[in-house]
UniProtKB/TrEMBL annotation:
Gene3D superfamilies: Nucleoside Triphosphate Pyrophosphohydrolase (3.90.79.10). This is DNA mismatch repair protein MutT. Residues 1-132 form the Nudix hydrolase domain. InterPro entries: NUDIX_hydrolase-like_dom_sf, NUDIX_hydrolase_CS, NUDIX_hydrolase_dom. PROSITE patterns: NUDIX (PS51462), NUDIX_BOX (PS00893). It comes from Luteipulveratus halotolerans. Keywords: Hydrolase. Its cofactor is Mg(2+).
Length: 137
C-alpha cells in the first residue's frame, strides 16, 4: 500500500532574515502560507488563490520561481500520510492581513524551527543552508 500524499503550494517570503508564517484557527504549529489545489488548478494557480484567500495580497505569477519541492510526514495526520509542498518565491502587492482560517501571521527566525510542521522544518533548514534564514541548522 502506498502512502497518501497531500499536494500543496506554498509561498516563501522573507523579510529582514525572517520567514513569513501563519497559524490557522485552533492549531498550535505554524505553517508557510499556501494550500491544496482545487480541481484543475496548476500549482501556481493554487498559490495565487490560496495567498489571496489567506493573506489578502496578490501574488504576481510572472515573478514566481520554484524554490523546491519538500516532502515530509503531514502534521496532524496519521503516520504514513505525507505532504508534498511546492515552494515558490514571488513578488506581491497589497497589505499582508490574516483572513479565512488564518488566526495569526508571524515572522519566524531560525530559533522558531521547533514550532513549525515537519515539512516547514525542512524548508527552514534549506533556507538556512542557502544563507537565506540566518542561524537555521
Amino acid at each position: 500500500m502506498s502512502a497518501r500524499v497531500i499536494d500543496k503550494s506554498a509561498w516563501i517570503h522573507l523579510e529582514q532574515g525572517r520567514l513569513l508564517s501563519t497559524r490557522s484557527c485552533g492549531r498550535g504549529a505554524y505553517y508557510v502560507p499556501g494550500g491544496k489545489p482545487e480541481p484543475g488548478e496548476s500549482r501556481l494557480q493554487t498559490l495565487v488563490r490560496e495567498i489571496r484567500e489567506e493573506l489578502t495580497v496578490e501574488i504576481d505569477p510572472g515573478t514566481a520561481r520554484l524554490y523546491g519541492v519538500f516532502e515530509a510526514q503531514a502534521h496532524g495526520h496519521p503516520d504514513g500520510v505525507l505532504v508534498r509542498m511546492a515552494c515558490y518565491f514571488a513578488e506581491y502587492t497589497g497589505q499582508i492581513t490574516p483572513a479565512a482560517e488564518i488566526e495569526e501571521v508571524a515572522w519566524l527566525t531560525a530559533g522558531d524551527i521547533g514550532s513549525v510542521s515537519p515539512v516547514d522544518e525542512l524548508v527552514m533548514r534549506r533556507l538556512g543552508k542557502d544563507g537565506l534564514l540566518p542561524g537555521a541548522p
